[in-house]
Amino acid sequence: MSADPHRTGPHFEGLAGTVVHDEVIPARAPWSHQVKAGETLRIVDLEGNQAVDFLLYSAADDAERYSAQDTVAAQGNLFLREGTVLRSNEGRPMMTIAASAIPYHDTIGGACSCESNTLRYGHHTKAQHACVENFLEANLWDGRGKRDVVSNINFFMNVPVEPDGSLGIVDGLSAPGLTVDLKAEMDVIVVVSNCPQINNPCNAFNPTPVSMIVTSA
Ligand SMILES: [Zn+2]
């Protein structure tokens, strides 16, 4: 039995190794953290229906970063599932989805921005905080700028693809306490926007905190 109640309980179930990092990202906030090769990052959707916008950069050279196109092309499928290898713009494995409590995650819906909010939802949304600002803030801590914000992953976001190829952004697949586990295949910098969107169902119109747990190899 551990004396630390935060390191037992359902959010830690099934995780091997030692907890080396454990942090809650508040609703609407940016986050960045380095995860070393062999470590596992668990994202916990604490209250359910929370989209976690997600980017990866190689810690050795951040010109190498997550590529939705390389990831989708290599696996021949649009959805990110258990077993999906998240690949870089050089085709190399960055992280693998080791486990997922929901059937699939999105990598085509993109990140919300003030500009896209204004187009989709009206000019009154211009001042609302958005994922692009979060990505920019977290990237600036390491000296990266707008040109480094590439197409991202949306963990726990439900973007179904219809038979005619059209996309939706519909109510989430997630529920309180559900998790996704990502094993690092190289040293990576993880950049997250805990999505502040309140104009569509990706966060159930109510952004909430998520938990980030890193365990050693
Ligand atoms: Zn967003």
Task: Note down, in words, how this protein is organized.
- This protein is of the alpha+beta class.
- It has helices at 68-75, 114-121, 131-140; strands at 19-25, 30-35, 40-45, 52-58, 85-87, 93-100, 153-155, 178-184, 188-194, 210-215.
- The strands form 2 sheets. It has a 6-stranded antiparallel β-sheet. A 4-stranded antiparallel β-sheet has the order 2-9-4-7.
- The model has no long low-confidence stretch (mean pLDDT 93).
- Zinc ion (ZN) binds at residues 53, 111-112, 130-131, 195, 197.
Q: Kindly estimate the percentage of residues that lie in beta strands according to DSSP.
A: 25-35%
Number of helices: 3
Distance between the termini: 21 Å
Query: Any ligands, ions or cofactors bound here, and which?
Result: zinc ion
Query: Biggest β-sheet, characterized?
Result: 6 strands, antiparallel
Task: Summarize the helix and strand pattern as letters.
Answer: EEEEHEEHHEEEE
Poorly predicted tracts of residues = none
Radius of gyration: 16 Å
From the spread of the alpha carbons, the general shape counts as globular
What structural class should be given to the helix and strand makeup? Answer: alpha+beta
Helical fraction equals 10-25%
The total beta strand count reads 10
Mean pLDDT: 93
Strand order of the largest sheet: 1-10-3-8-6-5
